[in-house]
């Protein structure tokens, strides 16, 4: 087992107290460090307020604030790098990286009543969770503080005092509590408390003093009062190894130190002045601690920081071990030596290179050097290994350059964020696990916008994922600077962002409004090209009239309707109508809406505008839609007629009055004759009377309403034909000269398939329509004679088109001869 420890930073923070006198929390993945000075467990003057300080991993101060809330039991960082402060009363306060208060939540009334003895912040695939041990020795937890669902864990039988140690486990996507009470271990899940026994545990254990879960929640380590450290799986079904460290004093901290996909298992145990790395090897690795230190478990190692230094302890990667171990003959080691000799212009370079090529391991050597470069912290060692890889590539015909180029890019990004002033000491493995998008988010969170943009441009990330997103975050931060005028902030944001794709000015304006800068938000919305994004925020800011103007400019009727309904609820009726009068398009749309939804409001609009024409039309529609009684309908029509007179539309007024007369007459006809007359048209009323045999009444109605003779004859002709009252029809035709001629009589009879009756009227049809009448009754020969007599080419063609070869051949010949004679003349 090979482990190495190297310095990340020389800490330059000004700590006034020892770490042991502070509550400490450090975020993984090279995250920030939080210290709560003067915690309540120390004896201090009541007048001295505790101070919460947040530093980068390099010791650069990020925030400092006086603690004005209740006593804090535990600190911890969420996966989003928010600081969770668990108070004694069960309230959890959440702060940002720069000390800005975000929110708070409570862990429940039971926790409030019994107070908090201890707390743990843990991470699952669902998010960051909080587990609480109360004064009643009961556990409460929430697996995700972003979606708070409290779970009270089962009671441990006979538990009268706090457990000697406890931790949270994540098994099968569910959070559990593992606790030690004397020599016994208990596992709490949502349903039950079960006693568990680690397999292969050394005898004589009377108490468990410390326990640690690996970064991935797959392995568990237990420190016993006999000095043994048991290591196994978190399921407690498999033992990995056991180590006797010969120290029975309880350690300050115990954390796992393992590399992803490594078969080696190691645990780091810290006492006041000693650090021990133990695993399945018979010997341990020990380090002397010169000062009070704190351990931070990471994905691939352990960060160790103290007042003066910040170091990283990890298992040596295979590629690095192969290259750098003493007298190594690995291909990577030989290639590194060959490159160094080449720089010295020594012929040994050729000898080393030939040795690698003879073994056929040059590709492997290049890959080893590239991989080892990724795991080196010092830039000079990275460059040396990459130069060796580049040197080896020159002697390979088809080595794909992607891995080399990608490693160069990754290391350049890593070296940039590891810089002391940035203070994010990510390893290559952590960087790959975290992803570039999350790293950019963390730079944005630290307000390191220029560096984030440089990385995006260097890696050529798509604008929407890279530069645009970061500029949007910068703009949201910019609007919070209240010492700069609204005009200057808006101008600076527009100059920087312009029309950058993927940037939403409305989102930035919403942030400005959230900060209480309404005027700035309005100025920023002027740069937003999408009205659909402008309008909702303007409504939220109670700038409804401006929102209406923007919606109308957009031409989006749905958007205009949205604003109108908002205005209707916001303003009183008078102000609302006055606003509409100044916006003709909005008024027109609102009228359309009212036609289908709010008829009374529509009437009020017409009244306010003195629009008597539309008001009359409204009352006519209302008389039929809303009124069932004849009296109510007539009254509504009278109101409509009055409105039409005011609008100087005499035609509409007279027509309305005629309709009122017709309605009254129809009611009287129903009362006297029975049957249904109401709501029939004038023509239908006449037709119904004729069909009922009430000819005189029909004629009287026609006179009353001045129905023209032609129209009356048509109505009577149609009605009598429908009744098939041919005798009455003949009498009617002879009553006086027909104003519509007699061709309609022929047509109507033929429509009723009565040729006999139709022929009665053909002789009375005028000369100009005689041919057509004869053809209707099928008398083609006579039609031909009349057409020849008239010498009308059109009529001759019409008759000829009705001739059939079999029956009308003689007629057709006759027409052709007549045509020939006409042409000779």
UniProtKB/TrEMBL annotation:
It is found in: Late endosome membrane; Lysosome membrane. GO terms for cellular component: CORVET complex; early endosome; endosome; HOPS complex; late endosome membrane; lysosomal membrane; recycling endosome. Residues 503-821 form the Vps16 C-terminal domain. The keyword Ribonucleoprotein does not apply. GO terms for biological process: autophagosome maturation; endosomal transport; endosome to lysosome transport; intracellular protein transport; vacuole fusion, non-autophagic. Plays a role in vesicle-mediated protein trafficking to lysosomal compartments including the endocytic membrane transport and autophagic pathways. Believed to act as a core component of the putative HOPS and CORVET endosomal tethering complexes. This is Vacuolar protein sorting-associated protein 16 homolog.
